[in-house]
Every structure is written in structure tokens, then in C-alpha cells.
Amino acid sequence: MDEVESMIGRGREAIDMIIDADSLQEGIIGEFQFDPELGPGAVVGTVTIGGQPATIIANDADEYNPRFPVVFAGVIGLEEGYKMALAVYRTITVDKEKPLDQKRALLLIVDTPGNGPGKIEEIMGMNKSTGGYQLALAEARKAGHPVIAIVIGRAISGAFLCHGLQADHILSLSKEFGTMIHVMPLTSISRITKLDIELLEDLSTKNPVFAAGVNFFYRLGGVNEVVDQVEGMRDAMIRHIDEVRELKRTGQFDKLGPWGRGTIGAERGGRQTRKMVIEKMTEEFDAVADKYLYA
Amino acid sequence: MSVWNQLQKNSFLESSARQRANGIVDNGTFTELLGPRDRVSSPHLPVLGEAVAFDDGIVTGVGLIGKRPVFVISQEGRFIGGSVGEVGGGKMVATLKLAIGAYHQIKEKYPTSYQGRLPAVVISFETGGVRLHESNAGLLAHAEVMDQFQDARGKIPVISLIGSKIGCFGGMGFVGAATDLIIMSEQGRLGLTGPEVIEQEMGKDEFDASNKALVYRTTGGKHKYIMQDCNFLVEDSIEAFRTQLAEVLTLSMESIEEMRRVGSQKLVEEQLELVKLAVELDPRDSMDVWKYFGNESPAILPELSLTDFLKQAKRRVRKVEGGSVNG
Amino acid sequence: MALQQLKFEFKVNNPIEFSHEWRHHGVVGSGDLEILMEKKDLGGAVQVQVVTPVVGFDKVWGMVLEKIVKENRLGNISIEINDNNATPIVVSMRLRQALAEAAKDVRKEV
């Protein structure tokens, strides 16, 4: 494939490519208006896509947070995590009375290098911010909102856990776009684990459980579909919103989200052991269940 | 004296994952699921020449506290830092799934008298999060655990015990924060970024990881107690953790939900107030925050015995008494 | 680079039967190991399997294990060890602890 222009750091452009033209109402969800100063590293707002309302949540790599200097280049900081969580809860509230198949979609545009590591962040308990956002997304997903993520640039470790991995479906631009999905660069892994860098490099070409990148994540079930053109992002998002909505309408929640990705990971041959572990534990519990359930 | 009785006096900090799992439920009730005899070790470590363990460093199983089935996940920090890979992650997810399944079965069997029989999940954390040797599988497992937590919301309590050497950091730091209720000892540590990583990222001036007192002031049990980021602070013994756990299990699910820190819009709004405070105070040290919450001589707090600390320490006053699911 | 798998077999006269179906002991910490012992009809023999990252110490393992087997007159038992760089002293100590614990606690498995 020819060289293509990377989308890293271009979250706002990606929003425009995906949503209906000029439909972004930034900082607004239903009646609620976000404080414009809050969490500049994250864009939240209401859009329409294919004529339907949706909530968008994206990283903004161009902004930095003057109050929390660790936030720049798309880092999800203390404020950003809570802002994103709030956007999700506001979305749930707006559609509270709507039937399951009319809950608006949440679109996550993912391009984040990490969570903010810092002393103030730890003192205040940054883990609550990122954990809270994940619970919010899980709640929205279970309430019927289609939650679709698309990785346009960097999806790194804990930041991808909070912004992406709780989605119903995850799409990703192909590796030609320089997309990065991983926990840590090999050099850092080598330093921490004291494993030989050559060995790790070799492993990273073949073992999906270890290797970085979109294609390996696809085999693990961590990415549902790889999109190979920016022009294709919008259609793919619309298609996945519809697919997810239909699965929810027919009660097939088990095929979606992290649990669904586990099943896909086994089907694609990337995560076989997980399945065996869950089955065997269930079997062992069933054998002793009476003693515990009806004590 | 039985093994269980001896375990009760053990330091929680020094205890292995299996000792903790056995000791925090009623005497002789713990059944390990996917225990060492099943020999399910990580299939990803041998190729790296890394030692394997028959339990992959996570002990899972079920015990009883009274008539309540208590599903236990207990992480072993001595095995690759308690890191979570494909097998260990699968064990965590399966335990949660079984507990939620048990909830439905019990409600069906005892439609009017299920209250004192409902299951609980207890996680004894000792981990830095994702196992780098099988990082992708570990990361995906974290997301699955969070997903199960949300399924458990309002049905069965998910309770964290944090008082082991490695603490609870990395992706598992989010996971710990997302549980209903957290019991810690002074020696327990909870956070997102471990001290070494902060030092490496921010420089020794911002954070000196070798300064143990600083590390404990920032992520240790006493700090988390003042911040209301842990609910209970107990002595460093298996018995103390078990006693607190048993007490908590007498509470209604509604009261337990009220102890959450995040998990609803109201709670997120309350946390945002704390973020505002961080900006106003710009604390150089946790002690600045302790002082703000009314502790006139914050420097003495780390020195106090647990009893004196619990008597004297002023905690952050919470505006929201928890929040219901989507409250 | 891959993990080493070592296998040993020993036999002593008049072995003492192992009093448990199975026992587990230890944690695979750095410089430490875990031991899984299982009663098995091996015609009186002892089978040991060691999984270790350390290369080139087969002989030492054999000597340490044989000593323990003789000392305790083990028989009809399979012993599996996951090792992470334990020294021979630690190996002997853990095996002795495991056997002592098993002997003390014949009432029930923990």
C-alpha cells in the first residue's frame, strides 16, 4: 500500500470526517453545557451522524491543560477523565425515557498516548477518574446506547482501557496510518522485564498476545474491524452503530463489549486459553455449587 | 490450633495469596477453583524463558461467610509482581461471572429470604496491572473485569482488600477504584502510576521514589483513608481484614453502594469538586491536603498508631452519600 | 532461552506411602519455587519434574532431589516443581517444609 498521511494528533479533523457536516455542538449534551475551561484535552459534544443524534468524545492533541501540565498531546488527565465520564452520564440522562433501540450512539475517537502520571494526580486519586469513565461507558452500553470506538492514532495502555476498550465495537485505521495499539514500547518492556530486546523483537513479529499493532489486536478480538481509508471511517461507524443497535434490540449483549471481544478473540485464534480457563472454572464451581449456594 | 486459626494472626502484608484467600472466609470453607492441581499456567511465558506458576499468580475460589458465598480473587505479588495475563485475567473474569450467576440462582431459590445469602466478591489486590510479557491479553482482561463490575452493580458487593507488598497500581489501580468498597491497611498502597514510573516520567525533583515516607503519604492507606478513597483502615492482620469484611457484609446493598467513589453522575460531579480543590491548593505534598481537611498537624499523622490515627484524623467531608446506579 | 524441563526418577527400599492425595506448597517468587506432590502408583518409584529457567544444573537438581527422597523414604509419589532460580539450599528447604507440613496436617487438605 502507498504511504498515507497519518491521523495522529488530528482528532478534530477525524470528527469532521465522521459526523454529518457542521453538526458538532461542542460542550453541549441535551440541556447541559460543559464549562469550556474543563478538561481541554478532551472534546465532548453532540453531533448527528447519518441524521441521528450521537455524543462524541475525542482526544484533542492540540490542547494542553494549564492546570495540569501533564496533559498535552492527547493525554487523558484528571479533569479529562471526569469530563468524559460526565459526557456519558449526561447522554444516558438525555435518552432516559427512550426505548432501548432509540438510545443515541456514543462515538469515541481514540488518539491518546496515556494517562497523566504526576504527583498531584496521585494525591487526588487519578485512578478514580479513569476508572469512573470506564464504568460510565459500561453503564451506557448496557442501557442500550451503541458505543463505537475508532482508533485513529495512538491507543496506548491504560488510556486505551478507559477510552476505547469499554466500547461495544472497536474499529481502527489500518497500520499504514501509523496507528499504534500497545501497552508499552519494546525498549521499556525490555528494561522492566530484563528480557533480551532481540527476543522481544522476534516475538513481536508473531505472537498476538504480546505484539503491538492493529493486526495483532484484531486477532485477539480487540479490534472488530480494520478500516483502510479515512474516507471509509464515516460509513464504517454508521454501519457498526446499526449492527450494534440491532444486536441489542434482539438481546444479544453477550456478543458486544469486552465479553464479546473475548469470544471473537477465541474465534480468531488469538486468545484460546482465556476460554478454557472460564469453562473449566465454571465446571469446577458447578461441582461444588450446592454447598455454597444453599448453605 | 488449626491452620486457619494460625492464619488469622498472620500479617496480611506478609501472607501469600493462597493464605489470604483461605483466611478471609470462614474456617475450612474455601474451595479453590482452577487451583495448582489443574496446572493451568501461562502458555506465553515459556517461550520467553520465564518461570511459570501452576496458578499463574492468582488464587481464585469460593468460601462462606455465614451463609453467604464469598467469591475470592487473590493476587500473588511474588509471582511477576502480581501482574495480570491471559490466564490470571480469565480467572478474575470467570470468578466475577460465577458470582453474578450465583446471585440469580440464590434469588430464584429463596425469593423472600435471599438477603442473608447473597454472594459477594472479594479481591485481594497485589499487582502493578498488565503483565508485560503478554500485555495485549492482560489489557483486554482488565476491560472485561470492569465490564463484569458494572454487571455486578447493585446486585452483589465487590470489595477490595489492599494491604499487600506490591500495592494496587497500573490498570488494576482503576479496577480497585471502581469496586464498591475498599478496605486497606496502613501498609496498603493504591494508585495509578507507581512511584518509580512517576519519578522516571517527572524527574526526581517532582517525585523521589526512594523516599518511602513520601510514597506512603501519596498512595498509602492513611492518605487514602483521609481522602475517602478507601472506606476502612484496619490493622495488618488477616483477622482484621476478615473481621471488617464480615461486618461490611451485614450491610444492605444500598448502603454498600453509598460507599462508592465513582460510578454515577453525582459521584463524578463530587470528584470534580476535588479536582477544583487540587487546582486551588496546588498541593506540593499530601500533607497540604490533610491540613485543608482540618488536620492541624499533618506531619504527626504518619507516626500515629492505627487506633490514635482513627481517633484523630479528619477526613474529607463527602457531599454525596454515594450514588445509586445512574443516579 | 525457553524454559528447561528436567525429569528424574528415584526408587528407595521400603518407601513410606504419602498420606495425601495431593499437596501444594510455595510460591514461584524470585529465587523461590512451588511444589506439587501427588500420590501416584509408580511401582514404588518417585517421579520428579522440574520446570526452570536455569540451564546447566541438571546434576545438582538430581543430587538435591535424591537426598530428599532417601531421607524421607518417598515412594509412589509424583513431584512437580516450578522453579524461578532457587538455590539448592532453598530447594532442599522448601521440599523439607512441604513434606513436614504434609506430615503435620494429615487431617485435611488446605
TrEMBL record, chain A:
Pfam families: MdcE. Residues 1-284 form the CoA carboxyltransferase C-terminal domain. InterPro entries: ClpP/crotonase-like_dom_sf, COA_CT_C, Malonate_gamma. It comes from the Bacteria. GO terms for biological process: carbohydrate metabolic process. This is Malonate decarboxylase, gamma subunit. GO terms for molecular function: ligase activity.
Automatic annotation (TrEMBL), chain B:
Keywords: Transferase. Pfam families: Carboxyl_trans. It comes from the Bacteria. GO terms for biological process: carbohydrate metabolic process; fatty acid biosynthetic process; malonyl-CoA biosynthetic process. The keyword Transferase applies. The keyword Transferase applies. Residues 1-257 form the CoA carboxyltransferase N-terminal domain. One of its GO terms (molecular function) is carboxy-lyase activity. This is Malonate decarboxylase, beta subunit.
UniProtKB/TrEMBL annotation, chain C:
The keyword ATP-binding does not apply. This is Malonate decarboxylase acyl carrier protein. Covalently binds the prosthetic group of malonate decarboxylase. InterPro entries: Mal_deCO2ase/Cit_lyase_ACP, Malonate_deCO2ase_dsu. Keywords: Cytoplasm, Phosphoprotein. GO terms for cellular component: cytoplasm. The modification O-(phosphoribosyl dephospho-coenzyme A)serine is found at residue 30. Pfam families: ACP (PF06857). It is found in: Cytoplasm.
